[in-house]
Specification:
Blueprint lengths: L7 E2 L2 E2 L2 E2 L13 E4 L4 E3 L7 E6 L6 H16 L3 E7 L3 H11 L5 E4 L5 H6 L2 E2 L4 E2 L2 E5 L5 E6 L9 H9 L3
Parallel strand pairs: 6-7, 7-8
Antiparallel strand pairs: 1-2, 3-9, 4-5, 4-8, 6-11, 9-10, 11-12
Keywords: Antioxidant, Disulfide bond, Oxidoreductase, Peroxidase, Redox-active center
Pfam families: Redoxin (PF08534)
Protein name: Thiol peroxidase
């Protein structure tokens, strides 16, 4: 993946593995676990505008703010469906969501199979975590916006992602 040289953590280069997702491609279906351990498939949101908020772990300040921000956006724009995904255990995600009032976004764990991470190119090889980024998918299942955040301790461009999603509803 040509993004590998650009992803850093505290300035240290990391390697992304998986297939880089690009604007215009069909969004690959993936499965992950919900906080109640039930399986989730992207197919469940077929025909909907979807924002996938990708992060390393809710136990970090930037990830916490990213999760809360997109949950708020999902509530304000009810016709935009937000998925928050990391490799945190489902139990930790459930506890975080309960403590922070995150109830509009679908919170998923990719810890078991890294199915999302590999199909969308967000797996950090050295850490077995997901990198930070955003993917926006239209009602036809086509990727319309992608951001791989270069420094994973930095915030994504929230406004650009939400604006891209709002144009699709």
């Amino acid at each position: 993946m040509d993004l590998s040289n650009n992803i850093t953590f505290g300035g240290k280069p990391l390697t992304l593995i998986g297939k880089e997702i690009k604007v215009g491609e069909k969004a690959p279906n993936f499965t992950a676990l919900k906080t109640d351990l039930s399986p989730f498939s992207l197919e469940e949101l077929k025909g909907k505008v979807v924002v996938i908020s990708v992060m390393p772990s809710v136990d970090t300040p930037v990830c916490e703010l990213q999760t809360i921000r997109f949950n708020t956006e999902a509530y304000e724009y009810g016709n935009i469906h937000v998925i928050t995904i990391s490799v945190d255990l489902p139990f930790a995600l459930g506890k975080f969501c309960a403590n922070k009032g995150v109830d509009s976004a679908i919170t998923l764990s990719d810890h078991k199979d890294l199915d999302f991470g590999m199909k969308y190119g967000f797996v950090l090889e050295e850490l077995r975590l997901l990198s930070r980024g955003i993917v926006v998918i239209d009602k036809d299942g086509i990727v319309r916006h992608v951001e791989y955040v270069q420094e994973i301790t930095s915030h994504p461009d929230y406004d650009k992602a939400i604006d891209a999603a709002k144009e699709l509803v």
